[in-house]
Amino acid sequence: MVKAETRSKTDSFHYTHKPAHETELGDWVIEVMTHTDATITVYPPGQIIFIDSYVRTKSGKERYVFHLEVPKRGESMSWAKFRRAAKSVLKTAELAAPRTRLIRDVQVADGLLRLWTPGGRVSRR
């Protein structure tokens, strides 16, 4: 019997609000994480497969959990490298600091997704 190779895995992250309340299943997410040592990492695109929410007991605020399908062997990049690569796609002001926002312009979204290969590796072009 031939063992099927899995090319993707699931990942999740939580957020304090559902961005613009317009996020849908199938949308692509490029997650940017600021670490405690102040480094910033940009992870390869993942596709939303499920959105869940719960209410925090202490604050009573709702928190959203985004479940993604991500490439198993995906490569992340530093924020500086992402900024250099994305200059041809985004305006300089949009790259000043990482932030959550929806991108509805298909050409811009495709340009950002092309910074990685379909397998999640950082594109060399």
Question: Summed up, what is this model?
Answer:
The protein has two helices and seven strands; from the N terminus they run βββββββαα.
Q: Could you walk me through the main structural features you see in this protein, from its secondary elements to its overall organization?
A:
Helices cover 13% and strands 30% of the residues. The chain has 125 residues and is of the alpha+beta class. The chain has one domain. Strands 1-6-5-2 form a four-stranded antiparallel sheet, with no helix packed on it. The protein has a three-stranded antiparallel sheet with strand order 3-4-7.
Number of domains: 1
Helix proportion of residues, in percent? Answer: 10-25%
Percent of residues in beta strands: 25-35%
**Termini, distance in Å?**
38 Å
Specify Rg, calculated over alpha carbons.
Answer: 16 Å
Q: What is the typical, i.e. mean, pLDDT?
A: 87
Strand order of the largest sheet: 1-6-5-2
Low-confidence region ranges: none
* Tally of individual helices: 2
Shape: globular
SSE order and pairing:
Elements: E1 8-15, E2 28-29, E3 32-34, E4 40-42, E5 46-55, E6 62-71, E7 77-78, H1 79-86, H2 106-113
Keywords, separated by commas or semicolons:
125 residues; 2 helices; 13% helix; 7 strands; four-stranded antiparallel sheet; alpha+beta
